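2024-03-11 09:14:02 DEBUG pipeline.ingest accepted 1 chain
2024-03-11 09:14:02 DEBUG pipeline.ingest length=461
2024-03-11 09:14:03 DEBUG pipeline.predict start
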Amino acid sequence: MRRPTTGDLIRLSQQLEADQSTAVDALKQRDHTIGAHCTGQNDSNRLLYWLDHVRPALAGTEQPPRGAYLLFAVRTLLCLAGFLGMAGFLLGSHNGLVNVFMLLAAFVFVQALLSTLSAFALWRSLRGATPATASASPTAWLVKHSLADYSALRDAGGLSRLLYLRYGQEFGALFTAGAVLAFMAVPALKDFAFVWGSTFSPSDASVAWLMDVLALPWQSWLPAATVSAELVSASRFHAAVLPDTSTLSSLRGWWSFLMACLVCYALLPRLLLWLIAKLAYPRKLAQHFTQYPGAELVLARMDAAFVSTQATSAGRETPAPTATQQATAAHFALPENNLVADWCGARNPDSAGTGGFPVDQSNQQVLELGLGTFAADSATLVNALQPDHLGISLLVKSWEPPVGEIADVLSTLPHQLQCTLILVPLPGRPVPARKVADWQRFAGELPFPHTAVQVAGEQQS
């Protein structure tokens, strides 16, 4: 049991589009035949079984090589952009003095805000809404150019938005990961001091309180990644006053706190949202897979009985029933050299009184078919077949049209046998000639060299 993928959705879209030029009767016969042998437990598995038969998966169905190369290039560039962005920010700091507020604003607060907006959009998507997404956004452009056929996702409602969110969080995480790597590597090669200052002139106590709030997630188990009130006061920067060189080494104590902020507020939310979107996408895809426009018709054709009758050609009249066909005998003796089976209780009257043509069984075993599953009926036939049987005689209800399930079950028998379809009439009513003609056409399509249609009660010459 497997879940559908984006490639399966693309194949489904392409096949449904191709089926629009195929005759409805041909689609019914094809899909019914596939459905008769399908053992899927739910609609998704049954639709996948059908799709694998009518349109087998080929390499590049979901993502062509150019799409894979494009995604690899974008991932690499984003990681490199994050690294170069952080490295440039550090190396561009005047006299090696890094402004804490500027670093937090550029690499932490902006990422935290974007993650919050993405979390809201993801929450709406999981609840079934379709959040607005700019079609000209870089993520949307990338998704459209990385897939073999984007129209399948476009027709699947909000599924494309969820894919945008998934890639957006991945790209944001890669950018932040590059910045984190640079924040580890560059200070290891060159000394930096971290200071703070603002045109609003906040008090030392206010800044210390803000840093304590930011450090709440880890201050109890990682106290080394916090800043003390003394460090906050010592690192206050005035443009006209250079810090004492003797205190520069202590100002590097901000590094562990800033690293924790980068990981906690910038990197981890992106990774968490990416994981949620990645896990939710297959489930949403499975839901949209069975709800895709046209999929319900396929499932209905797989489950519905296929009537193998055709209208008579224009100008061609069906022969009138003969007197022999109209007459019915009181009892009908079953052939002794054939395997005899009854389809859906044709010889037994139902609660409405229809059916039930009297049959003389002569102590001969009659198999009951058509009331169970295809596998059960097939096993019953195969197990009951004896070497001395010349063929099979199947009792069917003449007032009902021939259905594909009968042909499916009979096809499991050896094709060298003879097959006779015995039409059981309604009590006291003859079998119309058009019904006989329908069953004769149906018998002619069975895979046996000798087929015959016989009306129960008709005297055979």
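2024-03-11 09:14:41 DEBUG pipeline.report The two ends are 55 Å apart (CA to CA).
2024-03-11 09:14:41 DEBUG pipeline.predict end
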